[in-house]
Every structure is written in C-alpha cells, then in structure tokens.
Amino acid sequence: MNEQEFQRRVRQHLNASAWNIPSSASSRLHEARQKALSRQKIAVRGLSLAGFGQMLTEHVLPRGKTTIAMVLVIAAALGSVLLGQFQHTADLEEVDSALLADDLPIDAYLDRGFDAWVQNDSTE
Amino acid sequence: MRIPPLPSRLELSDFLASVEKRAFKQALFAVRNEESALDIVQDAMLKLAEKYGDKPLEELPMLFQRILQNVIRDHFRRQKVRSMWTTLLSAFSPNSDEEDYDPLETLESADSEHKSESPQAQLEQHQTLSAIEKEIEKLPARQREAFLMRYWEEMDIAETAAAMGCSEGSVKTHCSRATHTLAAALAAKGITL
Prior knowledge:
The complex is a heterodimer.
Chain A: H1 3-19, H2 23-38, H3 48-60, H4 64-103, H5 112-123
Chain B: H1 9-31, H2 34-52, H3 60-92, H4 103-117, H5 123-138, H6 141-152, H7 157-164, H8 168-188
Helix pairs in contact in B: 1-2, 1-3, 2-3, 3-7, 5-8, 6-7, 6-8, 7-8
C-alpha cells in the first residue's frame, strides 16, 4: 500500500470515529456553535474611518512603490526650496554685516569726538 | 477590485458544523479528556466568531485550525501552572483528601468508557480505529497537528504551514515522519488498513 492510500484509509477511519461521538458531546458542540454564532463579528463598511482604511487598502497600498517614490520626490523638492531660502538669507546677512563693518571702522566707537559728532548730527 | 465574500451567519454555522466533530477529536487526541476537549472546541469557536467572523469564507479553515492549536497549547500551559501550584500547596497540606492528578489514570478511564460504548458487531473495526487513535495520540504534537491538518482536514501544505506558523518544508517533514511512524506502529500490531 502506498502512502496516499494509507493516508486515505486513516482518514476514512477517523471520519467514522468523528461521526460516532457520544450524543452528549454532540449537543455540547451544538450549544457551543450557537453561542459562537451569537457573537459573530460583523464587518462594518461605509463608516468614514472604515472607508478611509478601505481606500488605503484598495488603492494606496497596491501601488505602494509608486506612492512612496512620489512622496520622496515631493519631499526632495520641498527640501531643496527650503535649503535655497536658508542659503539666500545667510548670504544677505553676510553682505549686510560686511557693509556695516566697512562703513564704520571699529576704532570710531572708541573716538569721543565721533560720539559727540553723532550726538550733534542727530539733534540737527 | 473584487471583494471576497464574507460569511453570513448561516455560512459560518455550516462551516462550524462541518468541522466541530473533527475538532473535538483533534482536541481529544491532544488532551485525552472529553470535558477539556469540549471546552477547547468551544473556546476556539468563540474566538473564531468574535475575532474573525468577518473574514472571507475561504480563510476560515486555516484560521480555525490555528486558533484550535493555540487553545490546545494554552490548555497545556494552564495545566502546567495549575499542577505546579497543586504540588506547592500539597506540600503544605500533606493530609489533603484530594488525589494527585495522574494522566495515565485519565487515559485509562477514557479508554474503558470508549470500549463499553462500542457495539459488539463492529468489534474489529473498533479495534482498528482504537489502535489508530492511540498511535495518533502517541505522535509528537507537531507531527500530529501536521498529519491531521493535511490528511484529515485536507488542507494544502501552504495552509497547514500558515496555521502551524512554520515553513512548508517543516510541514512536509512532520507529515512524512508521522505517516511512517503510524504505518510502522500499526504493522507491528498486525493491523492492516
């Protein structure tokens, strides 16, 4: 007898045995089934959050690679714009400070005459 | 996109009715106690209905088997903890009237109960069946699970692997070993199927 035939015959015997379980056990199983059915989880479709989850599952996740690539491209573009703006601001600050430094030598602040001239100049 | 059909109450009822007896026997092979086996099947049915009652019909056999095996394992864990506490407590009360739990005693009584119920006309078939069941009980738990799911529940290798939480290769190995062990044990008893 080959393996498949052996397995088939074992199955037949086991089936016969399962159908001959005591009636007390059968009725307990019946009760258990009814109890389980009374607690069956029912699928909820149509609620906003459930709908959002369904949309994610059905539309976004199957195209996961494309979605991830698009998100990465958008993030990279935004990052590059922000970085450019920071760089521009830093350049302007550098130029301003250079101009200020050129216009007014640091020694001028130590000169009392210059201080008096600034006072007179602002009152005129 | 095609939405898989969800089981109605009637379909779930039909599914449970089609598996409950085999599930009871499976649990009985594992725990060797009728009351415990019935409790296990009830727990498995409740968990399936409560947690997976909205799953597509074709997923239910695999899910039910996975739950059933987990409930059987939980039963053994609880039994282990209980027996540990019993041992500890009995050490403090040596004059306790309660007898120690003896699995062999339970097995013996279950067997004798089964024998008394069997009709005389089907003695030979009963003996063969009894021998098969005893040998299935003796199989290592993982081999028994794999063998019963594949050849009794007629689940395919992928479903069995998913239900057992192991690789398909392991399922094949468990099934092959179980088949050879069973065949050899029955042949040694002079039983031909």
